[in-house]
Amino acid sequence: MRTLRFLLVKEFKQIFRNRTLLPMIFLMPLIQLLILPLAADYEIKNINVYVVDHDKSTFSRDLISMIISSGYFKLVDYDSSYKRALSEVERNKADLILEIPNDFERNLNRDRVQKVFIAINAINGTKAGLGGSYLSTILKEFNKNIVMELDHSFDGKKALKRIDVVNSNWFNPYLDYKTFMVPAILVILVTMIGAYMCSLNIVKEKEIGTIEQINVTPIKKHVYVLGKLIPFWIIGMGVFSIGFFVISWGVYGIVPIGNILLLYGYLALYLVALLGFGLLVSTYAENQQQAMSVAFFFVMIFILMSGLFTPIESMPEWAKWIAKGNPVTYFIEVMRMVVLKGSGYRHIQNHFLIMMGFAVVLNFWAIANYRKTS
Amino acid sequence: MEKEKVISVSGLTKKFGDFTAVNGITFDVYKGEIFGFLGANGAGKTTAMRMLCGLLSPTSGDATVAGFDLYKQTEKIKTKIGYMSQKFSLYEDLTVKENITFYGGIYGLGNRELKFQSKRLIESLGLQSEANQLVGSLPLGWKQKLAFSVAVIHKPSIVFLDEPTGGVDPITRRQFWDLIYEAVKNDITVFVTTHYMDEAEYCNRISMMVDGDIAALDSPSNLKQGHGVDSMDEVFYNLARTAKRKSD
Lengths: 374, 248
Hints:
Strand order of the largest sheet of chain B: 6-7-8-3-9-10
Oligomer: heterodimer
Mean pLDDT of chain A: 86
Structural class of chain B: alpha/beta
Number of helices of chain A: 14
CATH architecture of chain B: 3-Layer(aba) Sandwich
CATH topology of chain B: Rossmann fold
Shape of chain A: elongated
Distance between the termini of chain B: 42 Å
Number of domains of chain A: 2
Number of domains of chain B: 1
Largest interface: A-B, 25 and 30 residues
């Protein structure tokens, strides 16, 4: 295809001459990939806890030191006034209040039952929920220790009956969020670059009027669309590779378990589908502002409905359908499956078929909607 | 002797909603002539031209361009025409040479032809020292001359020029018309819209559009005679005054 060659030479010259676009394409994703995973860590640390201790006994002090030494909590203050604790919550200085009642130690020794009170500041839902459950876990542990201690002092007459649950985390043994998030964030970055750059490109030609000059030539529609798709496909591959090998592997040490060629095969197909989306947007939009707004609207939905942050399984039924109509969902799944789990082709066969569907529909739609004659 | 028609238009109409931009115009353009398309702003010149180039589909009417049907053979027409729009439409971020190569390339010129044409073109425009400069850095007059040369690089039968000399100084306009005459010598028919009445005088025949209709069609001298005036300016005033439509 001689015409195609001329188109490609022209596109690449234009892209590489654009002093603003080029750093955007290559530097932006790298910087974001270094910064964003820090924010996508679900582990909650530095929970501010206010302890109201009415007992001030050995037990209560043991409990408090156990909480602090867990590493998740920061002691705001240690006091005996619930009212003051509450005012700290109101001033947003404390996330949790733990109230230890009078006679905490005595009751435990005598009755072996004692209630403590936890008040949670639920403004930040995630922090409150996780903080509360961390604290309960610590209390349970504390409880266990005490029971064992007391039992021991009763000469072990009463054997302890309980079930211990032991977890082992497959595919990500230390539950490292970076391992889970970095590959997925890379998918998002490649998606953003691809969708925006590609949709803006054709629209720019509409704005400056060069598309009219193209439209009076006998160029074939699909050749023109290919001429727009291929450069961004290559750029997408490049951006992904840098993110994958330099940042994900090099910086975060995430070594893919699965077949890298398989992953690239899927990436290649995904980029065709994604760029088809970008082209489609650009055939509808009249100017760059419109294209940007429309692309932004969809990319936002693509990102948040992709299972990146929250599992799709916990979405309501109707929202699951949106997630299923979202190409990003499939690529994030494939990425996590191949990189973390080492899945092979037969495990992601369906993902390939579905992405093929996206690619065909979006690109044919874009070609059909691109009109040389208005 | 029957002259060969390169454009034949009959009852060509374009409506945008309730608004009839071009109202059933009928005319022929003969091979080798310079056909001037005059009219006030908003009279429908550009719309008519865009239909003939295959950029806009007509609402009704028939037309053949370079022997091809406007409806069924639009893409064939495009191999036979050149077009230069009101808006400058070369790539400002490509060099002079790259623009020539690109457009020549998508019109299907062979490598040797491309090399030859690009050398000839740069020399005839006197752009040797600017050949590797970005087009965006050239003055407007040079850009327009370059755009015209690129529009005829594939030796089309007809070239459509939509106000090619808007905003260009008189000397460059004169040079631009030299390029047009040269194209005519190479058997290219020229279809040109303009607002400059001195340029209208250069045309073989002129059609004057008023409110989407062709109000007059003849050679400049016959038009002047018919209206009993000395200049094309006066012909233009006489005809354009009858317009009911607001100009844009």
